[in-house]
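Re-running Cation-transporting ATPase to confirm reproducibility after the cluster update. Everything else is unchanged from the original entry.
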Amino acid sequence: MDMQQSTGRESEQPFDDVMPEVQESGLKAEQVKQRIEQGQRNTVHRSTSRSLGAIIRANVFTMFNAIILVAMVTVLITGSWRDAVFGFVIIINTGIGIITELRAKVTLDRLSILVASPVVVRRDGKNIAVGHGDIVMDDLLWVRLGEQVPADATIVHTWGLELDESMLTGESVTVRKHEGDTIFSGSTAVSGMALVAVTAVGNNSYAAKLTAEAKTYTKTVSDLSKGINTILKYMTFIVVPLCVLLVWSQMNAVGGWHEAVASGQWRNAIISAVAGVVGMIPEGLVLLTSLNFAIAAMRLARQNTLVQELESVETLARVDALNLDKTGTITDGGIEFIDMVMLGEQTSPLHHSEAMQALYDVSNEENPNATADAILQALEDQGVAAGKIRDRLPFSSARKWSAIQRESGELWYLGAPEVLLAAMDGNYAQVAQAVTSYAQQGNRVLMIAKASVDGVNGEGELSPTIASGAHPVALALCAERIRADAQSTLAWFREQGVRCRIISGDNPVTVGAIAAKVRLTGDREPISMDARHLPKDIEQLAEVLEGVDVLGRVLPEQKKAIVQALHSRGHVVAMTGDGVNDTLAIKEADLGVAMGNAAAATKAVAQVVLVDSKFSHLPDVVARGRQVMANMERVASLFLVKTVYSALISLASVLSASPFPYLPRHITYVGALTIGMPAFILALAPNTRRYVPGFLKRVLRFAVPYGVAVALSIMLCVWVLPGIMGWDLRNRQDLFVLNATCALVLLFLGILVLAQVARPLRSWRGLLVLGFALAGLVGLLTPAVATFFALQVPQGSMLMATLAALACSAGIFVLCNMGARSVERIISHSKQTRQR
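Result of re-run:
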């Protein structure tokens, strides 16, 4: 499908009356038809790496879903539907995954750098309007003021054409074009017009090539997700063989396959085996991670921050290298008038007022450019109003100056200092030195000059040459408008240990001066460098970057290489930007951040979009990422304890040929009260702890000792209680009592694990643990709940046995806790010794 829709036919409206006369007649109808047949039209074909079917298959057909589905179907076959409620997690988790990736696909499919608008071409000696997709190779195309160049071309004739190429190169200064120059698709005409010959169309154009590379689908993979996926990968290898062994051992536990089938005990054996399998898979952890990302994204949306890939919420919490584009990030793209500096001895209030009035009047053109408009607004705020003038010579980028003549005949000039000084008689070395000094401070410097003589030509019009006797009067200082929040935001990142660099297409001296103004490096002077001197080798580039804070004259490909170089040193990189020239680097970075006023292509490939273009929102994104990481570490610890003890209990049941201690519905009940619901609350709690690498190691250090404590306690109940109580585990009622007792012990230990995870308990967290402990007790005492989940209130001798089991379990739990802390101290001491 074409990204740009063709109009289908040429417009009948002629444009000959409004276009300059040229000799070239352009392509003939037959030539146009021939090029269309050869596929040389200006159409760009959509292509994303994953189709709708591929997205659905990737989310539905996973090992995780397969195991849960098989387990659920197996339980349903036995007729015990109450033990199959765990299967609903498949539908919820798969739905979240599909919706998230579909959002990414829709965004990528809409990606377009070029604005598909009608253009005027010259064919058969006539100027006609055609659709953007109807442009063909070798067409003669008119580029007019305000239009975006739709295809790469070479200039045939120009009438003062100036292009804004900032969306492609990042350089904010407009570029004057001449005959024979090459212009690229995606740039915009800001002055004049031109007739150009198309040299590249469709997928071969510069903008389309940038788009094609930017559109490649890459899913953000967080450190959190990597850890969880690693756990699931290893559990997959364990679950399948252990499941087979469990079924075999449970059949033997009820008298063998023949006896199990004859007596119907095979159903209990299958259900017990499924209980072991379901317990080993942290299905709620995957679901809760997705939900936590989604909720964090919604909270950020309230602060005008759009998260386009949910997993990117936590990525910025790990970023240690932040690359900032100057225009649109540090500055807002606008110009502001800073000051007017009088030159020489002309420092009296009268001279200052006279120069101020002249500055206003020269700038006050019919269509002032951005710099003149900024001057006018600033002077109007100071009470300056338009004065009387006799004549005006408007600003021209070719001359680089403009002029007015007053009724008295005196002339006032405003323009580039180097141009005006070159036309003046006299030695103005000190003025030139002052101009250089102000320019190095990041200012755009304009000179105000005066000539007392009459400067009209023979036709009574102002002369396009500077009059003799002109002399400098003052310098007008303008600068890019710096965002009010830039300095404080950069200070925050410095305090957090994040290395910020400014990477821009502008002059490195100018960018360095702006970096100094916003205190990019604090008290230290930022080190600037021209990107044209950067090495191409990635390793050499990485070495250079360690000592550079500001880079100017950076090309789009270099921005991408800079990100790659930082990656080679192990840095987690975030990249901000607003132009098409930033898309490749944003795509390459671990986290791409686009401003709300950015190009459509830039916003489409970024994971985070600051809708109102406020740089100050980035700390909010960091804080939300830290909350996700810190809280999900707690939650993962909670879930993995269940995985560890389920795997150990299953293995112990196989090796000892013992009946499995509890039913799947027991896991559902205990898991909901001690893991699922508490985890959801803990995941949303405030948390500003800075992220420290090593998520998976810390989680396993917590989960293993407590998982061992729970497994040992439960298996002791299975091995000891039947002998003490005289239970025959081949009898369904005795097995039911054992299962109910083990479920109570599991609930008790689950509350203890929850208390460890939720610490400190002297806050709402303590009430959380107490609340779920009471909820478990209330459920046990509620007949309907107890019946559904196969629970039983212990009485008589069973009560004594249960209390003894609980006391023994508490002791084992404490011993494992002490052992884990001792191991931690030994490891910590060993690390300190090695460091010394």
